[in-house]
Amino acid sequence: xxxxxxxxxxxxxxxxxxxxxxxxxxxxxxxxxxxxxxxxxxxxxxxxxxxxxxx
Length: 55
Fold this sequence. Notes:
Residues 36-55 are annotated as: Disordered. This protein is 31% helix and 38% strand. The protein has one helix spanning 38-54; strands at residues 5-11, 17-24, 30-35. Strand 1 (5-11) and strand 2 form a beta hairpin.
């Protein structure tokens, strides 16, 4: 996993995990995507990192 794209939990008002966000740490934690599962979020973060490395 890269240092640029982080996967973080998204919480509701009762502090229950309701999803996962992929954030760009080099752009003030800009939310790149949201997902229902951690696995999907991690796959997206990996894909974003591959695209970033290729450019």
